[in-house]
Amino acid sequence: MESSRSPRTGRRHSLLRAAAITLSLATAAALAGCASADTTTPSSSGTSAFKPVTQKAGSQITVWADSTRLPSVQAYQKSHPDVKMKIVTYDGGADGSTYLQSKVQLFDRTGSGWPDVVFGNPTDVTWASEATKPGARPFAAPLDEKLVPQSTLDGFAKGSLTPCQFGGHTYCMRNDIAQVLLWYNKSLMDKWGYQVPTTWQEYEALGKKVAKEHPGYLVGSVGDTNSHESYFWSGQCPAFDLVKPDTLRTDLADPKCTRMATLLDNLISAKAVATQGFFSQGFAKNSGSKVLMAYGPSWYGQYLFKAGFKTPAKQIAAAPPLAWEGESTTATGNVGGGVWMVSSHSANLKASSDLVTWLTTSDANQATAPTYPAYTQAAKAWLANPANKDYFANEVSGPFEQAANEVWTGWSNTKFSDSTAWSSVVLPALTAGKSLTETLPAWQQEIAGEAKTQGYKVVDQ
Q: Which of 68, 152, 195, 218 shows the smallest number of beta carbons within 10 Å?
């Protein structure tokens, strides 16, 4: 499994990879409908049409996939025996790896070697949608240039393809998303007579009540490398807001940032929210049974509570994302989600596009995927699979589907990971006893520094 920011996506994160090693991807067996790649029709979506390299019908395509996605690619090969494929396993961009980018830069210099299809994270799309040097073509092909039908692209969850979109074109298809929602231990909530919160204010009030009435029990954690994506992204904090392709707004003094920091500081002070990460060493053994609520991604149910905390079945339930009282819209964050890209150098765009479409949209593949599919119809097949919901104490389909369409697109996909500054500045400060509120300026400074090294202009308003 991967994690990404929104999307952004989307990008893969180490905590999800660590959790995911407990489950292998079930192999898909059935044939599903595929896209048709028309490489001759000019595009109407951009100022210039995509010009494919000379196409060789039936030629072999090379596919790079991580080990988690490998069974899916093999299943496609088995169900499409006429498609010639060479499958290569690589890290898939895990843990911020730049292996793919380095190899593409090498291939651009030598003029050969590019894979036809690759699995990666949203951060990869930021460079793959641009030329690595003057005169070179961007690695990723614009899929909206008659490679994938627009009707297919329109079938993804709202905003889930935002990390794929640059300059008016779509350069990837989202494999999965990790929409954030509220997880809670229904058995304990019922036993103690607590109501599931629907607003952030109710969440804070209940957290303080829990701390007083049941000391040691928790309603969340801010100690993991992606905790900010659950809380600050959901809170619509403009920490990573690309106002222009080359200009990043990072304004942690914005009221939507400070109110979330204040809420969390209050719960940390009450000892209802932990500064130790859910995935940190010893947490599951020492505190896993005392997590009453957790605000986090859709994979928390299977990989945090079931695999990590060993919580018995029919105790954990899911609720929709929280809203702020008095505000008409609800937004949420995202902690994961990989992407598939087709190379603009491919001599068999039809086979490459067919493969990527099958991997991301087919029920045959996605119904047994380890994480929630970004494609809406495939997500329904995933939710219909008993293996994905029988563990829970309630019907999770509603909360999952609602959250999937409420991921805030104002947290942008950038050329650098949003986790680095949080991990290097905020987490050590929390460990040292500092508050989130007093750490916001240092967090912002670190984000701005990273952005500038990647060539972004930085503004705070």
A: 195
Phi, psi (rounded to 5 degrees) for 446: -70, -40
Place of tokens 């598939």: 340
Helix (H, G, I), strand (E, B), or coil: what is residue 348? coil
Helix axes 397-404, 376-384, angle to 10 degrees: 160
In 344-382, which positions are buried (b, 16+ CB within 10 angstroms) versus exposed (e)? Answer: bbbbbbbbbbbbbbbbbbbbbbbbbbbbbbbbbebbebb
**Residue 131: DSSP 8-state:** -
Sorted by sequence, the CB contacts under 8 Å of residue 214 that are 6+ apart come out as: 192, 292
- What are the pLDDT digits (tens) for 305-325? 999 999 999 999 999 999 999
- Which residues have a Cβ under 8 Å from the Cβ of 359 and sit 6 or more positions away? 69, 72, 73, 76, 173, 175, 340, 365
Distance CA 273, CA 216 (A): 10
Cα distances (Å, whole numbers) of residue 222 to 95, 204, 262, 272, 277: 19, 14, 13, 11, 6
| pTM summary value | 0.89
Q: Are 108 and 136 in contact (CB under 8 A)?
A: yes
> How would you classify the pairing of strands 61-65 and 85-89?
parallel
The Cα 71–Cα 86 span in angstroms is 14
CB 170 within 8 A of CB 155: no
Q: What is the pLDDT of residues 20-73, one digit of tens each?
A: 433 332 222 222 233 333 333 333 344 457 899 999 999 999 999 999 999 999
